[in-house]
Design brief:
By secondary structure, the chain is mainly alpha-helical. Helix content is about 80%, strand content about 0%.
Length: about 210
């Protein structure tokens, strides 16, 4: 079951949603059938992210709710905070996501878990960018901090996501040159790491930026 969760997360990072869904829907069903709560929360969190990225928002909330309930019962909700926070974000539940990720960030800094800190900063940047209106200054600061940590740790997929987030935010605020540079960097990195899932939307965003310049 642990292997299913970790392989599913790998497929998710690559944007291979069909393989995530195929693998983890079976694994989650097995956990439910045999009442095996040890790995259910983590697998359910990854599956929720895949549902959200696939547009299946109605499937996200009940799965997330069960995952967090079981995680809290076992006292390991902190370890799931980032995954659950990201799934909440993808489902459009910004306040819930923000509360979870702030706890993850505080825990990561207390225990010097730099990788979790980088992920949390990226998520906080994305949450701030998606506010209405966007909290642009705060979002940029979070993204830049996340990039600095992720580059130091060799977390290249996260660096690419941060550049995409920055580029999208700059475009939304009419900063065309920084937007062009950030989006072009993200595209180059996605191509270099064979992460095609995020390419179309990033390329479309760059095309729109270039149309203004």
């Amino acid at each position: 079951m642990y292997a299913s969760a970790e392989v599913g997360l790998l497929f998710l990072n690559q944007g291979d949603l069909p393989r995530v869904l195929s693998l983890l829907e079976r694994a989650v069903a097995i956990c439910q059938d045999v009442d095996f709560p040890l790995w259910f929360p983590r697998m359910a969190a990854v599956l929720s992210m895949a549902y959200a990225l696939s547009g299946r928002i109605a499937d996200v909330v009940p799965l997330l709710t069960r995952a967090m309930e079981q995680a809290m019962e076992r006292g390991n909700s902190r370890s799931l905070g980032r995954l659950l926070g990201e799934a909440q974000l993808l489902a459009g539940r910004l306040d819930e996501a923000h509360a979870l990720v702030e706890r993850v960030l505080a825990h990561a800094r207390t225990h010097q878990e730099c990788g979790h800190e980088a992920y949390a900063l990226h998520l906080l940047g994305t949450i701030a960018a998606r506010r209405d209106p966007p909290e642009a200054e705060q979002a940029v600061a979070h993204y830049q901090q996340a990039v600095a940590l992720a580059e130091e740790l060799g977390m290249r997929p996260l660096v690419a996501h941060c550049h995409r987030g920055l580029g999208t935010l700059y475009a939304a605020t009419g900063q065309w040159e920084p937007a062009r540079a950030a989006l072009a960097t993200a595209i180059e990195m996605y191509r270099g790491m064979a992460m095609p899932f995020w390419l179309p939307q990033t390329e479309e965003a760059l095309a729109q930026v270039e149309a203004h310049g």
